[in-house]
Each structure stands twice: as structure tokens, then as C-alpha cells.
Amino acid sequence: MIRLIKNCIIIISVVAVLVGAVSVVSDAGIFFPKYEMTESIAFAQSIGKGWNLGNTFDACEKYSDKKAGLETETMWGNPETTKELIAYLKECGFDTLRLPVTWSQHMGNGPDYIVDRAWMDRVQQVVDYALECGLKVILNTHHEDAFWLITDEEHKAQSEEILCKMWSQICERFAAYDENLIFETMNEPRVTGTADEWQGNAESREVVNYLNFAALDTIRNSGGKNVERFVMMPTYAASGLDENIDAMRLPDDDRVIVSVHYYFATAHQSEFYDAEKKWNILQKWSLYKTFRRMAETYLQKGYGVCKSEFGWTDRENIDNLVANTKFYVTLAEKFGFSMSVWDNGITDSDDVHSFGIIDRKELKVVYPEYLDAIL
Fold it and tell me: Is 184 annotated in the active site?
């Protein structure tokens, strides 16, 4: 009976959201769980609306042992990142730049795994562009899963060694930067190519927990302002699946924020990137339940939440895209999450999974309705 009553409350909550009654009932703590405003939650909310500089510093030749230079920034079709582009993001209304960086092809061999100085300099230059414009910056490690970041017991020790050596060098370079620079330990850590790659299993989830703690310890012990820097940590695969939300272990650290990605209300289905149809009540209910689970699991325990990647590719059905985006963004804000949209650029590529919003060469918004829905 209790379970039935709870499910009825959830269904009524979704209906309330759909008819616009959210503002009337949100203070009651029934539809949106109450939580104490901690440092982590307050800062996570100050991240606001973020924009991902996708397919740029994360561009790489996956699964290759070749070393690379600065040319990787443009190898996936995007132009070189300019100060003008970053300033344009601020002008558009974004609060934060998320800077995905793949470090692997710019690192030497073990045991030291030295990051190429020119690569570190270039990353720092773009970080400075954003901070000078008044944006916060989330700096992460991206696509390392295609090289050495394998989250199973067999590879745990190697993954820890390289991850910590890498973060030690990043921390040394940015030790003097203030809290407007945020570190994110990993991006979608998982075991690639397996049947349960995105869902994970008990072993891989626990290895992700272990690596998150190892990276955090490296950051905290690196000196300077890293001792109190806000650090984002992902679930397994940065997944919003129930089992991955529940399995995440969090440290006794009031400056840790949870990072989760979300591209579709029922994640990892065939329509993963699609916005062709306007979400029905069941899809909205699914999103509501996932967000509520995050709020109860993280916010109510004092940890902020950032939806550090979200977005859809369909541009032929702009009205549905806008409607779905508005629902997503409004719901996330009501729960108290910040969010960063994925933008992999407007290029000449035939890639059907294009999340592009801004033309980086012309400095113009290609899909203004979508941007308006996000902001």
C-alpha cells in the first residue's frame, strides 16, 4: 500500500509539472525534495548554464599509441578556439565553459607520463580566455577510456597510476587559480566494448568509486588552491541509470559535486540522440523519477549536482526539440541542478549525431530557438 501511495504521488507530481503547477507546490517538499543549502550545492548551482567545447581539445585518434601535437585541436573539423569565441559564449548568456580535454596522446610513456608542455600551455590559454571573460571553467579528462582508463579490477592499478600522474601535473599548472576553475576527475569512466558498457556491473562501479577517490586525493594533496578547489566526480559512465546513481560512493568533502550526463529521458535506447517526437507523459515521468532519485541520493546528503552533458541532435523537428529542452531545463532547475549543453560544432561532416548550436567560425547562433530553450 505504501509503495502504491508513493507511486501515485510521483504520477501526480509529473502531472503538476506538466500543467505548470510546480511553482505553487515546490515549497511543500513533496514534488521536489527539500535539502540543506551546503557549500557544494550552492556552488554547483552557481555553475548555472554551461556550454561544452566539444570535439576540440578532446579530439584524438582513439585506440592509437601514436603521440600527437597541437593539431589535434582541429582534427575533428572544428576551427582553432579563439578568445572571441569564448567572449561570444558569455554574450550569448552562458555562465560556464566546460573544457573537455583528452590528454593521452599528449603524454609521454611511464613511469612519469609527462604531459607535453605545448599542450598544457594551449589548454591553459583557453582556460584563461574563459576566466578573463567572467566564465567559470570545468576542466576534465576526456576519452581516456579509449587508451588506458579501464574500470575493471585487472586494469585498476594501471588506471590509478596514470590518472594520478596526469592530475598531479594539471594540479601543478593550475595551483594558483581560484575556485572559478573546477576540476572534473573523469568523463564517462567505463569498460568500453562490453555488453554492459553503459550499464556497468558491481565490479566496474566500485573501480570507478576507487578511481574517483584516488584522483580527489591527488588533487587535495597537490597544494595551492587545489586543497579547497571544487571537484566534480562522475557516476559510472556518468550514467543516470538507477543502479549507477545508487552505487556511487562520495567522500567526506564539502567541495565535491556529482557529475551526471543525460541525453534522453530513457537513456541508452535507440533514440538516444533523437528529438523527433515530443516527449509523452511516460518519458517525462521517467525523467522526473531519475531527477528525484538524484536529489534524494545526492542533494539531501549535501552534494551538488551538475548535469555536465546533455543535448539532442535532431534539427528537423525544432518545435519538438524546443519543447523537450524546455521541459528538461525547467525540471533540472526546479530540482536544483546546474547543466551544461553538449556542442560538438557546426562542421562539414556528415555525422548524423551533430549537437552543434554555435557556428564557431562566424560567431553566430545557428539554432536560436534551441539556445533560447536552454537559457
Answer: no
